[in-house]
Write a structure and sequence with these properties.
homodimer
């Protein structure tokens, strides 16, 4: 291993976000990354883990609820730790952050990788992430937060013909309000490429970074898909008040973070935050202190929504399955 | 009023921090400030308020618990709002922030003006300030946070001769641990000058700023005072564990924000944060995302601790009385 190889340990490596990050790190030429997947003892024999090992990823056992000493050992020689843990288990990051601090990790990425939202009060999942970030700050742990906006892969609505059903997974059941609130989107496949640049960029140390490809309103998105497909889309406008009411109803039950209702709540709150409040924009991100990939990396190549949509229409896209089980649950449930 | 006059409304104008800010704004030549004191109906006839009016400060009634419409009216034509509210009443800022948002205030300064500390978990008073800041962020309200470190005026220990008792008000009952943790200090009279520059500086919009004069350890501070006074000081080293234990004891009683115990808790937590954890330093401030006045204003004139101490020894200093009643209660109680 050359001395300029950067050693990255990743929690949640077999999830959707973790997976694209691992791919990008393995593909990177400069710098070269050595990648270690922090893996639960019970997952060592999973096919996805074995497949990763075959691709050159180091597999290291890490029990987040086990002894600190073992976690510290798992992080021995690691430069950067990335968490893409399941949202409901965010608090399990605490021991990993403690161990990261004690072994002198150079940069820790807590599990954000979602849309831009206020630190508190709009999205319960984001509130929890803020607690995690605050814990890192109390530790004086070097960190970088990366948010990535809404994925193309969970944004396109179905077509009347049914011909893109194989690939799409819309997580919003219709168009919020008038459909004229812009929100930022990213192709999930680009997430890894952004992460690979951000984590070795001194400008992003102890900062939040917003990685995104395009900003569009729901109406513009429907227009685009109609133009490309030649089909007419029904536009189901959902009154803002109805979304608010769905949120209140679930909130009233105080769902625990590991419950399906929590996932449903997150789903509605994402929708409201992005498409009603308009939080998920570069402007609001900058107000909150984020750097943006557009400004950091004006040279970056990224997939346009149009090009992704054409790929879907051509039958060449892949549905994002994995995150149903592992990650970003808020996007994984249809808001019916 | 010329068009380039900046209209500042201030809450807590008769307090210690509010007072030095009002002075600096009134003294500023460029820009010129128009200053309005947001005043409780019950305080309109107070001597300090009448004295301010005589110095050209506009007095406007503001009842934070009154109708929003009235608050919005009080802020009519105001560019910048500064809150230096009493720490125990921080949550009263919420309606003021709502009104500031609805009338389009260009910049809102929530009541920080204290030491640098992590956003959560080290100082209960700071935790509450973070809640206020998060509320501003949820509103997308343009803001600036200013922290100012520890005041000289509450730092110098007494001398055996008693000759500086007239001026000093040490808030830490001894030296924490080994006395070798550096912390940043500011002459309270400089706070206003820093604020007057920061609030019209576009670089500080939606940012946190750390204004400070000098960084020193407790031992260095005692050395300095011994050298200047020619007296020998007793150094009462307080074990870290004893401070921790005092904090735990008060925390266990869960004091409400308006109780004397809360003030006592804040006192101990400030001490622990500054002198044990070492939070109140430019380095940690930068890690947390603060800009610093040293970097923003390398030309700024400020009073050195040595010069302040000499002033005290010469009998020319003034004790900070007012903040006992109005402000920074955590610094106003001796930790006996």
């Amino acid at each position: 291993m050359s001395s300029n190889t950067v050693h990255v340990a990743i929690l949640g490596a077999t999830g959707q976000t973790g997976g694209v990050i691992v791919n990008a790190l393995l593909e990177s030429k400069s710098p070269k990354f050595r990648v270690t997947a922090l893996t639960r003892p019970s997952s060592l024999q999973k096919p996805a883990v074995i497949e990763m090992a075959n691709r050159g990823v180091g597999i290291v056992t890490a029990d987040l609820n086990g002894p600190t000493k073992d976690l510290e050992e798992a992080l021995s020689g690691v430069d950067i730790v990335i968490s893409t843990i399941y949202g409901g288990n965010l608090m399990d990051e605490i021991p990993l952050m403690d161990a990261s601090k004690s072994v002198g990790i150079k940069r820790y990425l807590p599990c954000f990788f979602a849309t831009v939202a206020p630190p508190k009060g709009a999205l319960r999942l984001r509130d929890m992430k803020e607690d995690i970030l605050n814990y890192a700050k109390k530790l004086n742990l070097p960190y970088t937060v990366i948010d990535v906006g809404w994925w193309y892969q969970v944004t396109l609505p179905r077509l009347p013909s049914g011909r893109i059903d194989y690939a799409v997974m819309e997580t919003m059941d219709g168009i919020a309000g008038e459909g004229d609130v812009p929100f930022a989107m990213t192709d999930v496949r680009d997430v890894g490429k952004y992460v690979a640049r951000v984590i070795v960029d001194p400008r992003t140390l102890n900062r939040m970074v917003f990685a995104y490809n395009e900003v569009m309103t729901h109406n513009q998105l429907y227009d685009l898909l109609e133009g490309l497909s030649g089909e007419n889309l029904e536009r189901k406008y959902v009154p803002v008040e109805a979304i608010r009411s769905s949120i209140s109803k679930i909130e009233a039950t105080q769902p625990s973070a590991d419950s399906p209702d929590f996932v449903m709540l997150a789903q509605y709150q994402y929708w409201y935050s992005c498409c009603v409040r308009g939080d998920n924009t570069p402007e609001y991100a900058k107000y909150l202190g984020y750097l943006t990939t557009k400004e950091l990396y004006p040279d970056a190549k990224w997939i346009s929504l149009e090009s992704y949509a054409q790929e879907v229409l051509d039958g060449n896209a892949k549905r994002v399955y994995e995150h149903l089980q592992h990650l970003a649950p808020a996007r994984a449930v249809e808001t019916k």
